[in-house]
Design brief:
Layout: H1 9-17, E1 23-34, E2 44-60, E3 65-70, E4 75-81, H2 96-107, E5 115-121, H3 131-147, H4 153-168, H5 175-182, E6 187-192, E7 197-202, E8 207-213, H6 224-239, H7 249-254, H8 261-286, H9 289-305, H10 312-324, E9 330-336, E10 343-349, H11 353-368, E11 373-377, E12 384-385
Parallel strand pairs: 3-5
Antiparallel strand pairs: 1-2, 1-12, 2-5, 2-6, 3-4, 6-7, 8-10, 8-11, 9-10
Helix pairs in contact: 2-3, 2-4, 3-4, 3-5, 4-5, 6-8, 8-9, 10-11
C-alpha cells in the first residue's frame, strides 16, 4: 500500500493563509566546481545551479504588512510592517535576505505591496550551497511576479548582492546570485566576474556530482569572510594593481617582497585559483579526468593552506574521496563555498555514486561521530516563476 501524498507547497500555503497562492517560485542552490573566493577580485569561477532549491509561494494580502513563514529554517511565522524593512538581528537574521531584497527594489522606485509568503525547499542551509542567494532570488521573483514587473538576470543578481551587503553584512561577490539566476541544465557556468560574461560549459555525460555536507554550519557574517576580502584588497594595493585578477604568477613572484606572509598566501591562492578555472574547463572539454582531479585537489589545498578557510571536517571528506580514487570512480574532490564548514563537491564516474556516498559516510562518521548529508545532484536550470502546471514541490 502506497504512502499518502504529502501536502503540496500550495496546500500548505492555503492552510497557513486561508487561500491558494497567486504564484510559486523556485530558486536553486549552487555548487561551485572551482574558482573559490575569487569572484570578489574579478576572477573566473565555474559554478553549477543544482537540483535542490528553495521554493516559495505568495499572494498579496491587501495590508501594509508582510506575513512570512520559513519552513526551511524552522522559524515561526513573523509579521513585518512595510514601513520597517531595516536589518534584523538574532533569530530574525534570516529575514535580512528577504527584507534586504525588498528594500533594494523600493530604492529603485518599486512599490512593495503587503504579501503573505511561505518559503520551503530541500536545499541545506549554511552548507556552502548558496541558500542565501537562493532565498534572495526567490524573494525577488515573488515581488516581480506579484507586481507584474521584472529585471533581467544580471540586474536581479546585482540587486540581490547589494541586499546581502547592506542587510546581511556579507561583502560577497556576484557568483552565487548569478549562478542561481542564470543556471543552465546540464551545464556549468564559466563566469568572468570582471565583465560578467557567462559562458555555459557542458560537463562530460559520464561525470556525476556528489555533495557531502559536513553539517558544520558556517556563518560568513562573523567577519572571517570580510577579512579575506580585505586581505585580497590590501595585497592588490601593495602590488599596485586594481585587483588580484590583474596579477600574474610572474608578477607575484617578482614582487613578493612587498607582501607580508599572510597577504602573500592570500594573493597566491587568488592568482593560482583563477588560473585553475580555464585549465579545468579545458580538462572537462577533453574529458581528461586526471587533469580535472589534479586541479580540484590543488584548489582544496590552496584554500586550506593559503586562504585558511577549510576545517577538519571538510579536509576529512576531501581526503576520503582522494583515498578512494579510481577504485570508486573518483575524479576529484574539494571543499566548495565560503568555507569554515559547509560541504565538499566530488566528481565521480556515473554509476559509482552509491558506493562512493557510502564510503564518505562511513569514513566521516568514524572520525566525527555523525553522518554527513551526502547526495547526488545535477546541473539544473535557473530560478523561475513556476508555471501553473509545474509539479508542486
Amino acid at each position: 500500500m502506497s504512502s499518502p501524498a504529502l501536502p503540496s507547497l500550495s496546500d500548505r500555503f492555503a492552510v497557513r493563509f486561508g487561500a491558494a497562492p497567486a504564484l510559486r517560485v523556485r530558486a536553486p542552490g549552487r555548487v561551485n566546481l572551482i574558482g573559490e573566493h575569487v569572484d570578489y577580485v574579478g576572477g573566473l569561477v565555474l559554478p553549477v545551479a543544482i537540483d535542490r532549491a528553495i521554493c516559495a509561494a505568495a499572494s498579496t494580502n491587501g495590508r501594509n504588512v508582510l506575513r512570512l513563514v520559513s519552513e526551511a529554517a524552522g522559524i515561526a511565522p513573523v509579521e513585518v510592517p512595510l514601513v520597517d524593512l531595516g536589518p534584523r538581528t538574532g533569530s530574525d537574521g534570516w529575514l535580512n535576505y528577504v527584507l534586504g531584497v525588498l528594500a533594494q527594489y523600493r530604492e529603485l522606485g518599486w512599490t512593495v505591496p503587503g504579501f503573505d509568503a511561505l518559503f520551503s525547499g530541500d536545499l541545506p542551509l549554511g552548507a556552502g550551497l548558496s541558500s542565501s542567494a537562493a532565498l534572495e532570488t526567490a524573494t525577488a521573483l515573488l515581488l516581480e511576479g506579484l507586481t507584474g514587473r521584472g529585471l533581467d538576470p544580471i540586474e536581479r543578481a546585482r540587486l540581490c548582492q547589494q541586499a546581502e551587503h547592506r542587510h546581511a553584512g556579507v561583502p560577497c561577490g556576484l557568483m552565487d546570485q548569478l549562478a542561481v539566476g542564470a543556471g543552465r541544465a546540464g551545464h556549468a557556468l564559466l563566469i568572468d566576474c570582471r565583465d560578467l560574461r557567462v559562458t555555459p560549459v557542458p560537463l562530460p555525460p559520464d561525470w556525476s556530482i556528489i555533495v557531502a555536507d559536513t553539517r558544520v554550519k558556517h556563518t560568513l557574517a562573523d567577519g572571517e569572510y570580510r577579512r579575506r576580502r580585505e586581505d585580497c584588497e590590501a595585497a592588490a594595493r601593495a602590488l599596485g594593481v586594481p585587483t588580484l585578477r590583474d596579477v600574474s604568477l610572474e608578477l607575484l613572484a617578482a614582487n613578493a617582497f612587498r607582501l607580508d606572509e599572510r597577504l602573500a598566501r592570500r594573493a597566491r591562492h587568488a592568482v593560482t585559483e583563477i588560473a585553475r578555472v580555464p585549465a579545468f574547463v579545458a580538462a572537462a572539454a577533453a574529458g581528461d579526468a586526471t587533469a580535472a582531479g589534479t586541479l580540484l585537489r590543488a584548489s582544496h589545498l590552496s584554500l586550506r593552506d593559503d586562504f585558511d578557510v577549510s576545517c577538519p571536517e571538510l579536509d576529512a571528506l576531501a581526503e576520503a574521496a582522494w583515498r578512494a580514487g579510481s577504485e570508486l570512480g573518483v575524479i576529484g574532490a574539494r571543499m566548495t563555498g565560503g568555507g569554515f564548514g559547509g560541504a565538499t563537491v566530488t566528481l565521480v564516474r556515473r554509476g559509482r555514486e552509491a558506493e562512493l556516498a557510502r564510503h564518505l559516510e562511513v569514513d566521516f562518521a568514524g572520525r566525527f561521530g555523525h553522518i554527513p548529508s551526502v547526495f547526488v545532484t545535477r546541473p539544473a536550470g535557473a530560478a523561475e516563476i513556476m508555471p501553473p502546471d509545474y509539479p508542486a514541490p
